[in-house]
Amino acid sequence: MKTKKILSIAACGLSLLLFSGAVNVEASIAIKDGSKTRTVVKVNRQQSQTAQHNTIAKKVKKAQKAEAGQQVEAMDSERELSFQERIYQILHPREAEPDKKAAIASRDDNMIMGGAVATQEQCVRYLLKHNPNPKLNVSPQELVSYYYEEGSRTGIRPDIAFAQALKETGYFRYGGTVIPAQNNYCGLGTTSATVQGAYFATPRLGVKAHIQHLLAYASVEPPQDNIVDPRYELVRRSYGSNTLTQWKDLNGRWAVPGVGYGQSILEDYYQGILNS
Questions:
Q1: The predicted structure's pLDDT at residue 64
Q2: What is the pLDDT of residues 19-73, one digit of tens each?
């Protein structure tokens, strides 16, 4: 009877051990039988994972809830930041970004060769401001585009070359020796009040000749295409390896006596184009 009672107590203890959630439980219940001790029950098994799974599930759910809370908080913060940025933009509007074309304004405007600073639109606008009806055989826009195409091909400043044409033709009013039919925009070959100078079949050829004549003064490198300037070789033979670099160097050479000729191109015409 005593032995049965001990076995019953041991069984209850074993059940508690198996249900407690311990893993790899090993238990021994010893029963004394006289002087001998014998093992009645020995447990070496892995407890059911149910309790453990429940614990993990609770932890996962808790972590997910915390993560969701963090995401909502982050979204709220982002929305708040976006709203604040919009308010700031309203109260502090950005200034308009400078025209990218102004980046090339660092080039020396005194030089005959270089890239354009003024735009084609500025050239046309300045011309039409001073002469709404220029005597041209093409539109002002087309004529200006010829200057930029020929200038980029040779390296001559097209905007200032066009300013020179405005000076030479009186904003394409003419009225002197040269007439509009000549397509002569820089007085090429006009050596006196009675000599009309060169004729060119088209406005493009007239612009090409003007640019090439400037190139003859400013560079020893010949044009890449056909030479249409009738005085190109004459200038090159006269100057040899020497060149003119600045517009003021044309004083007394392009025009005679030509005092302040180059400065007038820059100050009286080119500056007007830039400010148009």
A1: 62
A2: 444 444 344 444 444 444 444 444 444 454 555 556 656 665 665 666 555 554 5
Convert the pLDDT of each residue in 143-158 to its tens digit: 999 999 999 999 999 9
- Mean pLDDT (whole number) for 75-96: 54
User: Distance between CA 92 and CA 26 in Å, rounded?
Assistant: 75
CA–CA distances in Å: residue 149 to residues 133, 154, 159, 163, 205: 24, 9, 11, 16, 12
pTM over 0.85: no
Q: Which residues pair with residue 33 across a beta bridge?
A: 36
Residue with tokens 């039919």: 181
Amino acid in the structure at residue 28: S
* Beta-strand pair 25-33/36-45: antiparallel
Distant-in-sequence, close-in-space partners of 197: CB < 8 Å, separation ≥ 6: 177, 178, 182, 184, 187, 188, 189, 190, 191
What average pLDDT is seen over the chain? Answer: 78
DSSP string of the chain, one letter each residue: -HHHHHHHHHHHHHHHHHHTT-SSEEEEEEEEETTEEEEEEEEEEPPPSHHHHHHHHHHHHHHHHHHHHHHHHHHHHHHHHHHHHHHHHHHSPPPPPPPGGGGGGGS-TTBSBS---S-HHHHHHHHHHH-SS---SS-HHHHHHHHHHHHHHHTB-HHHHHHHHHHHHTTTT--SS--GGG--SS-TT--BTTB-----SSHHHHHHHHHHHHHHHH-SSPPSS----TTHHHHHHHHTT----BGGGGBTTTBSS-TTHHHHIIIIIIHHHHT-
Q: Are 101 and 117 in contact (CB under 8 A)?
A: yes
